[in-house]
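Key result, reporting period 2: structure in, sequence out.
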């Protein structure tokens, strides 16, 4: 018998109708043995994600505001699924346990993880699969960093005891204290990948609400072309830069074990979706695999006469950032200039202190800050050693009257990063897409 690992995202477990779809998908193939589930997501525009509601519960609890009404909205979602599908599971017992922990001032990670926990208990009972908790299996060190190899060993040993199981995504626990720790948002994709590696799956199927990875974000470009196959390395570039369909860290575990990922649509199960593997021959003359982007960056630009003669200048700039525990995205340099591009999330509340430190220690002749910068990544193995790609991008942007604030090509030549004003972000993505899409 083969083994397939499936991860179902928030919209795929949002209500009873979605659960019947996932049961049909699982029943259609006996190899579909290990199932990772997210917390229920939005059922319609304007609906709430359970994980967001759980974070709100904890915030209310911290401010001594009664959380019961909000908690009821959460439990109603699970109870409705239980009754609609006639699932035989005593949810009240779990609700009481969570309430008691909330009253005992549980950690934020604990409460955030309960969305996946309840989801997996419900889905396991519905499918007749074993429920396997990821507490004690997905392991973190005391700084909250995932212990990949120890996790792999723990998952492997436990799953060997279960022929078929449902596991909650998004969380694990501290290896020493056993306390619940969550991955970053969207982290159930990572759980699926860790499970796939541990059971040495033939394939990791990631089931979501789009028929695979599209060449651009469908919320920005209308009907972007689907991507049939793409390499791990291109996918990582795209997901890092905002193609939010798959968490950027979901690539590593399966890549180590050479397990292909197949992104599929729960609502269109016959669509083949996107296959992600190591072997990716750029099809025909297709230059570009995809475009993704992220808003909210700041550029700090320093100017100093004869800067290129000053040995160690850039290193000292980076040491200052390190002292503030800030990681940077890019450092475009010129003869007399050095700029650092940093995400606003990293700078959060530190900008003034960083500027003061740079001014005092680096003594630039001039320094300017540009907030509201967006980065766009144009990614494709097909770009490598093919002249003209940057020219095409620049022309497309110039034709739309969009000013390029930064242009950076990685030495691997599989990506070009473009910085634009955030006001131009969506138009820039559409302009680049239109220049490359095969119409
Ligand atoms: P899940 O809850 O199943 O994990 P997500 O909402 O995290 O699903 O990811 C799926 C969403 O990612 C899609 O609905 C789509 O709006 C968005 N998305 C952004 N960029 C892309 C892209 N390039 N291709 C496909 N989907 C994308
Ligand atoms: N439920 C978590 C979130 O909303 C994790 C996930 O869905 O992957 O981020
Ligand atoms: Mg997701």
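The corresponding designed sequence is given below.
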């Amino acid at each position: 018998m083969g083994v397939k690992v499936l991860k179902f995202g928030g919209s795929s477990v949002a209500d009873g109708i979605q659960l019947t779809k996932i049961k049909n998908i699982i029943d259609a193939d006996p190899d579909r043995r290990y199932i990772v589930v997210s917390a229920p997501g939005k059922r319609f525009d304007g609906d709430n994600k359970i994980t967001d509601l759980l974070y709100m519960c904890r915030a209310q609890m911290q401010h001594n505001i009664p959380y019961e009404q909000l908690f009821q909205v959460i439990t109603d979602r699970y109870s409705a699924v239980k009754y609609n599908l006639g699932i035989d599971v005593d949810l009240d017992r779990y609700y009481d346990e969570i309430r008691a922990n909330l009253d005992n001032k549980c950690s934020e990670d604990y409460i955030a993880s309960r969305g996946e926990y309840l989801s997996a208990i419900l889905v396991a009972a519905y499918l007749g699969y074993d429920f396997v908790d990821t507490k004690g299996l997905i392991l973190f060190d005391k700084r909250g960093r995932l212990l990949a190899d120890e996790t792999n060993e723990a998952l492997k040993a436990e799953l060997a005891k279960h022929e078929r199981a449902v596991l909650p995504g998004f969380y694990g626990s501290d290896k020493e204290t056993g306390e619940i720790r969550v991955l970053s948002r969207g982290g159930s994709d990572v759980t699926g990948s860790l499970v796939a590696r541990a059971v040495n799956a033939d394939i990791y199927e990631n089931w979501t609400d789009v028929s695979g990875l599209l060449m651009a974000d469908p919320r920005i470009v209308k009907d972007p072309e689907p991507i049939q196959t793409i390499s791990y390395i291109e996918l990582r570039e795209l997901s890092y830069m905002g193609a939010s369909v798959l968490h950027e860290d979901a690539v590593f575990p399966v890549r180590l074990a050479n397990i292909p990922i197949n992104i599929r649509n729960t609502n269109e199960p016959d669509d083949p979706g996107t296959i992600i593997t190591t072997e990716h021959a750029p099809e025909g003359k297709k230059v570009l695999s995809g475009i993704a982007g992220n808003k909210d960056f700041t550029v700090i630009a320093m100017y100093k006469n004869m800067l290129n003669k000053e040995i160690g200048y850039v290193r000292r700039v980076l040491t200052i950032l390190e002292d503030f525990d800030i990681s940077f995205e890019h450092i475009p340099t010129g003869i007399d200039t050095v700029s650092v591009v940093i995400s606003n999330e990293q700078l959060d509340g530190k900008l003034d202190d960083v500027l003061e430190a740079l001014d005092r220690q680096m003594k630039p002749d001039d320094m300017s800050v540009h907030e509201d910068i967006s980065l766009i990544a144009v990614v494709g193995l097909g770009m490598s050693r093919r002249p003209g790609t940057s020219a095409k991008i620049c022309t497309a942007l110039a034709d739309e009257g969009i000013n390029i604030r930064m242009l950076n090509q990685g030495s691997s030549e599989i990506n070009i990063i473009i910085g634009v004003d955030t006001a131009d972000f969506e138009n820039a993505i559409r302009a680049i897409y239109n220049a490359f899409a095969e119409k």
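The mean pLDDT is 93. The radius of gyration is 24 Å. This case is discussed further under Risks and Mitigation.
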